[in-house]
Amino acid sequence: MASSSSTSNSAISSVVASAVATTTPGAGSPCAACKFLRRKCLPGCVFAPYFPPEEPQKFANVHKVFGASNVTKLLNELLPHQREDAVSSLAYEAEARVKDPVYGCVGAISVLQRQVHRLQKELDTAHAELLRYACGEVGIPTALPVTAAPRLAAGNAGTRPARRRLCYYYFFFRCGDLRFGLDERGSERLQEDGSPFIPG
Question: Where is the LOB domain positioned along the sequence (predicted)?
């Protein structure tokens, strides 16, 4: 089994090398697919727009994974404006399968999904910390010097109303809870000084 696979890979490599050596881009040059399949590239070839002669490995991978006849059938079933995206997808999946015969592109997708999950957890943690800080629940760090703690405590006392206001706006805009700070008519309630009313 391993011997036949090695022989197949050697045959593909030799054909690709031959295509690179003998094909030059330009008018009249057969596309990479027809060159690989050792056939004449006729006008209207379904492969020609998507497998240029200077990219023989692209078609070699697609042919190895999907088969030329299956790709031909797929392209003929699609509208012309859909074919380029289809070939790009096939080429990506085929290259991933050649690099990773077991998982193919699923392995790369799994890695990206794990990264998204990890980053989402970090984002949720950051939002929670921001909310705690805005609501004044974050205390003075214990690692601060003794001389800095009283000054920071005094500063925190002066900024509590601002934190409270920030906490209110966080809930108002992010959580969409319109029950706080609005009267029966749905307009924002204002205090005597013109600032928004913040529930106690």
Answer: 29-130
**Alpha helix ranges (H) inside 100-195:** 105-134, 148-170
Per-residue burial over 144-167, b = 16 or more CB atoms within 10 Å of its CB, e = otherwise: eeeeeeeeeeeeeeeeeeebbebb
HEC string of 43-70 equals: CCCCCCCCCCCCCHHHHHHHHHHCCHHH
pLDDT of residue 2: 45
Q: Domain residues for 17?
A: 2-99
pTM above 0.70, yes or no: no
Residue 7 in tokens: 């022989």
Q: How far apart, in whole angstroms, are the C-alpha atoms of residue 196 and residue 136?
A: 19
For residue 128, being part of any structural domain is answered with no
Distance in angstroms (rounded) separating the CA atoms of residues 165 and 188: 14
Q: Tell whether 195 is covered by a domain.
A: yes
Rounded CA Rg of the chain: 32
